[in-house]
UniProtKB/TrEMBL annotation:
Transmembrane segments: none
InterPro entries: HAD-like_sf, HAD-SF_hydro_IA, HAD-SF_hydro_IA_REG-2-like, HAD-SF_hydro_IA_REG-2-like_cap, HAD_sf
Top-rank lineage group of the source organism: Eukaryota
Family annotation (PANTHER family): HALOACID DEHALOGENASE-LIKE HYDROLASE (HAD) SUPERFAMILY PROTEIN, PTHR46649
Keyword entries, A-Z: Signal
Full protein name: Haloacid dehalogenase-like hydrolase domain-containing protein 3
Keyword Signal listed: yes
Signal peptide start and end residues: 1-18
Lineage: Eukaryota, Viridiplantae, Streptophyta, Embryophyta, Tracheophyta
Length: 313
């Protein structure tokens, strides 16, 4: 009788193991299908207003697929846990991550006014006659043109790149026009902090032991710009493409940020507004990633997902 009981218990144990394996395999297949669908999410173009603007107030646009099926932070049933961050906090002592990486233009900071308007208004005295909508259309075309793979777009001060963009977008090649625009987007007048509570939240995160860094495709103007916006001291480090020699989505820039902070990639989460550059790039480096405007809409939410509660007004 005891022998029969032991055989039955052994069979039950094998059945449980097989069931668990099948569940894990099914979950991986579902995640794989979602990941394969993702490349269609990105389309080249330009948005001259709102949160997807870059160093001259312009940036390539990204279309968004509202699906988190392959996202590590999507609800996953793991015993009593139904969120990936809760699961991580249970394993790592309360904090889901040791470091937060933050995109600059489009996430941390946004233009004070539509860049097409700025290009148009400043350009009038230089003979620019095209309308804002025409400038937008021409800029999108210019930005979509291949840039030499042997050079970064934002190499050093990035003037060659921006000269090309401004000339194609406005039809004006006057060096004084480029210089006025270039200087304007280095001032606090041109930008604002997207989330007014960002400074307090970053301070709370750092006091809790979470290191914070900027990871940005930007030229050498970013550091003086951050100083002008009085947010330079919010961060433990900055990984800027013009300094690192790699641009998102290249995983190297995320790894460089983690090295500056002294953490492993798997212990960091990146927040940015571009699915291709920020989300896919960070994940290729081994970091987790949240899409700004979809996965999270405020830095209070970011802190909460990491495991730090911050009271904001």
């Amino acid at each position: 009788m005891w022998v029969l009981l032991e055989v039955l218990l052994g069979c039950l144990d094998m059945l449980c193991t097989a069931t668990s394996f099948c569940r894990r395999r099914t979950h991986r297949r579902i995640s794989g299908l979602a990941t394969c669908a993702a490349p269609g999410a990105h389309s080249m173009g330009a948005i001259l207003s709102g949160r997807r603007s870059s160093t001259l107030g312009l940036r390539n646009g990204t279309s968004t697929i509202h699906s988190n099926a392959s996202h590590p932070s999507s609800p996953i049933q793991l015993g009593l846990f139904n969120e990936y961050e809760v699961y991580r906090r249970s394993l790592y002592g309360g904090l889901a991550y040791k470091a937060l990486l933050v995109d600059a233009a489009g996430t941390l900071i946004v233009p004070s006014e539509p860049a097409a308007k700025v290009y148009h208004d400043v350009g009038i005295k230089y003979g620019v006659q095209w309308s804002e909508s025409e400038i937008l259309k021409r800029y999108r075309w210019a930005y979509a043109q291949p840039w030499s793979r042997s050079r970064l777009r934002y190499e050093n001060d990035a003037r060659p790149f921006w000269q090309f963009i401004v000339e194609k977008a406005t039809g004006c090649s006057d060096p004084a026009y480029l210089e006025e625009l270039y200087h304007y987007y280095t001032t606090a007048e041109a930008w604002r902090i997207a989330d007014p509570d960002a400074g307090r939240i970053f301070e709370a995160l750092r006091l809790s032991g979470v290191k914070v860094a900027v990871v940005s495709n930007f030229d050498t103007r970013l550091r003086p710009l951050m100083s002008a916006l009085h947010c330079y001291d919010w961060f433990d480090a900055m990984a800027i493409s013009a300094e690192v020699g790699a641009e998102k989505p290249n995983p190297a820039i995320f790894s460089a940020a983690c090295e500056l902070l002294g953490v492993q990639e798997q212990d960091a989460v990146h927040v940015g507004d571009d699915r291709r550059n920020d989300i896919w790039g960070a994940r290729d480096a081994g970091c987790d990633a949240w899409l700004w405007g979809e996965d999270v809409t405020s830095f209070e939410q970011v802190a909460k997902k990491i495991g730090v509660e911050v009271a904001v007004s």
